Amino acid sequence: MKEYCCILILLLIGITNVHAQDVSFILNAPTSVVKGAQFQLQYILRGGSGADIDIPEDIKGFDVLYGPSVSEVYSSSNINNKVTSESNVTYTYLVMAREEGIFNLPAASIKVGSSNYKSNIKQIKVLPPDKNLQPGQPITLTTSSSTAEDIDSNDAFVSVIISKTRVKEQEAITVIFRFYTALEIRSIDNIQVSECEGFVPEDFQLPANRQMSLEHYNGRNYYTLDVKKTLLFPQRSGMLTIPSCKMEIVFSVPSGEKVTTFFGPQDVMIEAKKTLTTSPVTIDVIIDSDADEKTVKNNLEIQGFDKTYRDSIFKIN
After folding, report:
1. Which of 3, 63, 94, 218 lies 20 to 30 A from 282 at CA?
2. The CATH number of 156-286 is which of 2.60.40, 3.30.300, 3.10.450, 3.30.460?
């Protein structure tokens, strides 16, 4: 009898160590697409098995071409005698953007057991097609004349985006170094920004897994990535310079050769490395006769800087 009791207790312990994930229902879609392009709109149910998914029949600015297709993934893990089970059910729609502008992709609802769950909504930007788009070319791409020997400066470059070019002493400036590319890239390495003399910098921590997004710039569509973002606080009046940014990019470009495949002739791609550099930018810093130490420190406090940092600003000079 004691043996049976011990087995029952062990079974109960095992049951209490089985954990299922919480139920969530999430909309997943790109943040930007090109007018006329097709993309996937996904509603992902985690932690449950749903029925009767409901989305609006008419999505403003878009045509629903197909869906939903349903895929299910179930998994479990045992770590330190703790069993965790997970389930993902993905409902995928094929959608085409028919209008330019900024839209909200709608929430969907689904029933899990006796409960109803509603997804988030998501804002999406629909860009105009590339001005150089050739007949028959995929609408999400842009034309390019780059080769392994010569990467066109219009196909890939780094831009300096500055919130203001004329500021007062101690007034914060937001500076973004943004990479633009119409080419496929393999890697970004050796990002170098020289020290900003006359400024106190405060770098933003950018996510390590951030993704490239589409942007329409000077009539062309580029994939973009912010490689560095910082706040600069000018410490003296006069013309101050934000130095250049330099980085090494490895691109994938056509070699000039083609191979025959099931889908027809395709380019043979090779890697090409290029160093991209921005030009220095000059900022006009003027004296703020009305500002005092207390005002500046209050502004820094509003922006979230701690007291030690706020006090250090006035000890630099």
Report:
1. 218
2. 2.60.40
